[in-house]
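R.M. (postdoc): so does anyone remember the format we settled on? I'll just put the structure tokens first.
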């Protein structure tokens, strides 16, 4: 097996995909969300659909930025913990 850094570099490890649906509860929730999303869209006028789609796009972008920020923070925290465990006697 290659080093974890090489695996990450070559795209063999994709945290944002691996972490989204890693539990039964999350998969279930995504199913509910999808169903409710479809039900809402069926009841909207064309104008409401357009507004809802804009909201959805903004929410998706926000979630993506948020996930990236959390990943960066968690990675840095993990590295600090690793360094502390190596440097502290």
């Amino acid at each position: 097996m290659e080093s974890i850094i090489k695996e990450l570099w070559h795209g063999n490890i994709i945290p944002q995909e691996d972490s989204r649906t890693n539990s039964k509860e999350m998969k279930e929730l995504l199913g509910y969300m999808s169903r409710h999303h479809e039900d809402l869209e069926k009841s909207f006028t064309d104008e409401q659909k357009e507004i809802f789609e804009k909201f959805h796009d903004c929410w998706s972008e926000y979630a993506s930025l948020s996930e990236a920020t959390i990943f960066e923070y968690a990675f840095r925290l993990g590295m600090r913990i690793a360094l502390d465990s190596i440097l502290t006697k």
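R.M.: ...and that's the designed sequence above, right after the tokens. Also worth knowing: The first helix runs from residue 4 to 9. Helices lie at 4-9, 15-18, 24-43, 46-87.
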